Amino acid sequence: MQQSQRKQNHYFREAEVVLLVEHQDNLTAEQIIEALGVEFRDGNFSKTHPKINVPRVYTFARSTGWRANDEKAEESQPRFFSAVFGNVPAAKLPDNPTAEAVARSNEALLERLSASTGNLSVPTRGAATPSKLQVRGVSPNWYSAGTQSKPLGGGGPGAWPVPASAPPQNKSSIVVTGLKDRKQNGTAGKVEILVLDTAPSATRLNGSAGKPSHTFNVIRAGDIRPYLGDLMNELNSHDLGADIEGHQYDMADHGLFVSYIADGVLNEHLPKDVEATIRLIEVLNEWGVGTVETIVAGLHKAWEIAAADPNTPRVVNCSFMMLNPRRFSGIDSAVDKDKKGRLGHKLPTDKQALITPVARARMLAMSQVDERGDTSSSVILRMIFDLLKTMGVLVVAASGNDAEQVGDRPVARYPAAYKSVVGVAALAQIGTSATTALYSNRADEDESDGFATYGGDVKPITTSNGIEMVTDANNALIGPYTAEKMPDPTKAIGTWDDNTTRWIRWAGTSFAAPIISASLAVLLAERLPPDEAVKKVRSFQSNVTAEGEEVVSIEGQFVTTPPV
What is this structure's pTM? Predict the structure, then answer.
């Protein structure tokens, strides 16, 4: 996508909000909307997406033994919580609004909602007393992404991919050093990996030689709820411009690439009598962009799968990052550190709606930042991940690719930074080396809680757009890439070469994460409890990074074989 085609880039979806509500009874979506009393638009707000701006509700039931990481009294917590998304009336903006106009419009919108919501009640069928419904917060519907933060994103690829030749038998094979000789340890049973990511079209997927060899299926956004398909189409629109500046290439195969890496670990270490399934759940569009809503919808599907079949061990892999600003994100300084002296995350360019310190501070205030610096939308996600953990589901997430030089690494992005999520950083070398990749964030909020494993190396090249990071063709993971054209930062987009090999080498924390996810899945297949599986992977460590992440080494000549 050419930059000239981009109308505007925002940090969040204009005039669209998410409300976090808690309730004791299992209310219907209609009952929740009625209780809120919020004037959600009925389809007249915007001509660009009339089908998707009705209220959308995702309700989660807390499991027995629920205890959120930030809650003190388990017994006092409501039994259900819901994320409510919708467009709400806002001041009319011109066709090409300034960043200040967008910020002030959304600021006023959130201020009105914050003032009008509180403790509400609504009668429920068969209930003797009204069900209490508490609004915990309101927030913009932030964007999420699987690529670098220029201007959207904060995770996924650390560099442009490069073409590669097919691996032997078109099959992935990754040996995790600590899992050697464990293949005989398994017993008959099941294990499942849920990959929340992008997904190529059915036509492209069917023509790919690089599908995972274990049972593999795709759950598309439109299959979860029809309007999510409309939302994905809108996010793919050139008019919307929801792609990634500096990474304007087809990202639909990102999730397939991640799944293929996870499959490589299963191929090497999972006993043959274990039935393994990899499900790819579409939560990002073909450019690698999503929203809080697409992520919540994918997590809701994962929760439904886990609730319907609680006896199957599961790992959820999240190779994406949320854009929820953190308390110590950079504002107007290139270097902005937290209390531990660690780098935060830079804000987008001055074209973004929240770039000025005043606009950003007001926006965060209206987003009801809690004591941990989380906005309301990140509280929603934290609660969902906490819930999955109480259900025995392990969640693994890539930490992000915001670093610009080794030894000067920003903190982990969400969801990797959540306490209930296992964060993963990337190493640039194979084996026992603890050299972190140039692009890699720290693995977790507390570095010792996370892991570092191989993600591939990168090298800078000079292009007409300046310095771009490109994957090192001799030192990176290999996987399928089904797009018609091969991305090339040295050429204009319309002049890219045909993708003749259908294979690429790619580097990033996105591709380190599934190595840990699949390693945990192998151990879960041995009937280890989730916490014990994490401890077992910790016992594999061959080294630690300078920042304290435990290193998990892998082996495999295919990784270092140069492409044809």
Answer: 0.88
